[in-house]
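TL;DR need structure tokens for one chain.
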Amino acid sequence: MATFLSRRAALAAATGAGAVAALTACASDIRPLADSSASGEASASASTSESASASASASASATESAKKSYKGTVKLDKYEKNGEYVPATAEKKAQNVPKPIVPEKMNEATIEGMYEFLSYWVASFNYMFMTGDYEPLKKADPEGRYANEGSNAVIIYSSGRGWVYDTDTPVTVQLLTDAPKKVAGGPNRYDWLGRIIYDPNAKIHIEGQDPAPLVDGSTKSEATNFAADYKDGAWYMLSDEDADASSSEKSSASA
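>> reply
TL;DR here they are.
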């Protein structure tokens, strides 16, 4: 049985891929993230003092927050509710899905801020899969790397031909360490070891086709590093490619 998302594409599904294979004559590969190095360099040169201040703040708060353990399932505390939530079924999409509310400290250069950013990011990612609405995710992804109209999760809804069902949370994240680890690649680059858990019951309904698992049935969970960078007053989620590139650039500069 075909699946909507391959193992590695489960989170990459929102990176701006072309149309879903089920909605087009042939499958499209997930395209790489847009190169934001030019704008990043301009921003960095314009706010050197701000970055230095943020770096000092993040480093100091890292020590203070290290005493608190954030290990475990990542949870967002607040959601906006509009009417009674009706779960999706094979016959109709979900109704009145609770919308994630931005946490108060999400944009702070602290470990707590990074945790709140991650909790909102995951909740908004799931919301996008359940509704096709990527507006909440844009608040944690202003560059539109993950939140955009070209993502697979958005296309199935905007086309009017499908939806996700048999799940409320397609993706759950568990953190495996008490706090993130500061890594090379920038003054505020952090990695947080965690595990992505896919709901094995999640399915995708597409008009005229048999139901299919949302994610490859052989995939239940996988360990990963959640890489984030704090810049310009906000946290940014990095792809594997971004994280590797920033680390390589840092190593080359110090060589």
